[in-house]
Design goal:
By secondary structure, this protein is α/β, with parallel strands linked by helices. The chain has five helices and eight strands. Helix 2 links the parallel strand 2 and strand 3. Helix 1 crosses helix 2. The radius of gyration is 16 Å and the shape is globular.
Length: 189
């Protein structure tokens, strides 16, 4: 079972926070703590996370509560699938301008890197109980890949909330199926 987790709420950047790579806010830490308690009954042994500060801090909370090991995984870095010139027609025209403004460092043409990352992670970990901590667009692309849906589908999945849980497991034929999608945890008062 692979549990996709979007990082907790990011800090706003006030008080000297790095706005380019913010860590978690106090609310974000509480969200992740509640999520970790939800997952605590599962036999999670490993938490893979992207290299950003907010995914790293999310993973630290999870590993501490779950007693699992944490590993940085570049395949879970913040990326956005953008169409190549040849594939622009796969996306609605009203999305083109937004897609053109995706920062160069985050662009993944035709989702090629994201697709390869998902298949590698599924192949290596579908028999494990593992948590993947990443970003909203990455999680949406992975779900789109599991559903074998058209490329622009990832833009209509969600919105993926902070510290939400999407669980993907094998069906009887060993194919990935979405078992839980974008489940939010209730924070204690």
């Amino acid at each position: 079972m692979i549990h996709l987790v979007r990082h907790g709420e990011a800090a706003s950047g006030d008080g000297g926070e790095d706005t380019a790579d913010p860590g978690l806010s106090d609310l974000g830490r509480r969200q992740v703590t509640a999520l970790a308690h939800r997952l605590s009954f599962r036999p999670v042994r490993r938490v893979l996370h992207g290299p950003s500060r907010r995914t790293t801090e999310t993973a630290l909370v999870l590993t501490e509560i779950l007693g699992a090991g944490g590993v940085v995984c570049d395949a879970l870095a913040d990326r956005t699938a953008v169409p190549s010139v040849e594939r622009r027609g796969d996306y609605p025209t009203h999305r083109w301008e937004w897609l053109e403004n995706v920062p160069e460092a985050e662009r993944d043409f035709d989702g090629a890197e994201l697709t390869a990352a998902w298949h590698k992670l599924w192949f290596e970990h579908h028999d494990d109980e593992i948590v993947l901590v990443t970003h909203a667009f990455v999680a949406a692309w992975f779900v789109r890949e599991v559903l074998n849906a058209p490329p622009a589908t990832w833009m209509r999945i969600g919105p993926t909330g902070n510290a939400t849980l999407t669980s993907i497991g094998p069906n009887l034929a060993g194919e990935p199926v979405v078992e839980t999608f974008n489940a939010e945890v209730v924070l204690p008062i």
